[in-house]
Amino acid sequence: MKNNTSSPKLVFLLLLITLGFFSCSDPDVKEGALLPFSQISTYNDVSIHLVNGPHRIDILGEGSISTVKWEQNGAHLHLKEINGLNPDYSIVQISTPSLESICLKNSSQIYIPEEFFTSKTLNLQILDAGRLETNDRFIVDSLITIKARNAARIYIHELSARLAEFDIHDGSRVDVGGQVNALVDLRVRNGARFHLDGDDHWFINNPLSAPKFQIHLTDGGNAWVHATDTLQALVKNGSHLYYKSLEGHLHIEKQDGGSATIKEEH
């Protein structure tokens, strides 16, 4: 009668296979590849570069990928923290072919060093002294929505989109150049600024241009815009609107100390 017990060699081989299966980390993750994602968030004073490309996370310069802590939940990539990297010698770079949303909080920063294209609508939420800066064209096929709160900073060198919505509050500063092809809906309040009162680094010579602007400024919110066909605005409670002259439709309602001035150059 044969013995049903496996031979010692077979048991040892199975053990090696089992240990190898459970102990090897995913080589793609070690090398920086990520599962596909369309949303990025970071809340803890994290600073990263963002570029177009395959879904990856890399260290440029000195350092190890193990210093970056992140988690993915479906399409959402959350950067938790970066430990032990010298920002003078190391850059954490995230690449993605397209995005639907970015959320920055608590002094976190994203810098986009080259032309960036996303084929979908894009929602930006820059909050609590978060900062987003681009150095080239920033292209959105359809609609871009931007919310800036609590001393946020946004600098977009050259925006290209069909529609744009801005909601800027609480001392935040947003500078945007470039062209929107249809409509800009702009709301600025509580001492926030759209394309005004910056130093040389943040100042763009020409404000965002679009055929039509719908604007609501209140409680000391100021803005400078370039409407090429239609400008409709409500300016109140000590707010001030600057605008380039236009030959099309102009309707500006001023209430409670609100004012408006033609401004051709900075």
Automatic annotation (TrEMBL):
Bilayer-crossing regions: none
Domain Putative auto-transporter adhesin head GIN: 37-244
Protein name: Putative auto-transporter adhesin head GIN domain-containing protein
Record Gene3D superfamilies: 2.160.20.120
This protein's UniProt keywords: Signal
UniProt keyword rRNA-binding present: no
Signal peptide start-end: 1-25
InterPro entries cross-referenced by the UniProt entry: DUF2807
Keyword Signal: yes
Domain of life: Bacteria
